């Protein structure tokens, strides 16, 4: 899930007119675009950690926030990207959080959704000892995974669901829009370093 950044042909021609060596203009544009992409990724990560995009980061230094990068795709075009690389572990979550969709279990019969603070710190119910499944006979009520305490009281940690529908959060689209002023400032700063040398 990425947003690509590219210089328009009109802008390339304008920059090329201000230099005697066309390769300097290409290098300036590529370096500026890459720096802008990195700055944009930094701003988006900051926004994710702050909770700006309707997402709660359980572990702010890892997961989606840690998977957002800015990088150069092709310096000869130049073409850069901001987002989550397709080979990152968080790539599938990045896409569904951006666009929305339905998640279904692939290997299990149900999705285990954490509902207690203790469960939210764990990766799966398998990491928690002493859980039992509680079937609820009421129509439409999903089973629960809980610990049975003294006196038969239940401490519920997980709910088991057949599917979960995620609404689109547009975190990357909104993050890129929020980062645009900073990306522009950084791009212009790098370009101005080259203009001084032409």
3D structure, described in words:
By secondary structure, the chain is an alpha+beta fold. The chain folds into two domains: 2-101 and 167-195, no CATH class; 105-162, no CATH class. It is 40% helix and 21% strand. It is built from six helices and nine strands, in the order βαααββαββαββββα. The strands form three sheets. A four-stranded antiparallel β-sheet has the order 5-8-7-6. It has a three-stranded antiparallel β-sheet with strand order 1-3-2, covered by helices on one side. Strands 4-9 form a two-stranded antiparallel sheet. A hairpin with a 5-residue loop joins strand 7 and strand 8. Helix 1 (9-17) packs across helix 2 and helix 2 packs antiparallel against helix 6. The longest helix has 29 residues, at 22-50. The chain is elongated and about 80 Å long.
**What count of domains describes the coordinates?**
2
Order of helices and strands: EHHHEEHEEHEEEEH
Output mean pLDDT.
89
User: What sort of overall outline do the alpha carbons produce when their principal axes are compared?
Assistant: elongated
The low-confidence parts are none
Main sheet? 4 strands, antiparallel
The radius of gyration over CA amounts to 24 Å
Which class best fits the helix and strand makeup? alpha+beta
What key attributes describe this structure?
alpha+beta, 6 helices, 198 residues, 40% helix, single chain, 2 domains, three-stranded antiparallel beta sheet, four-stranded antiparallel beta sheet
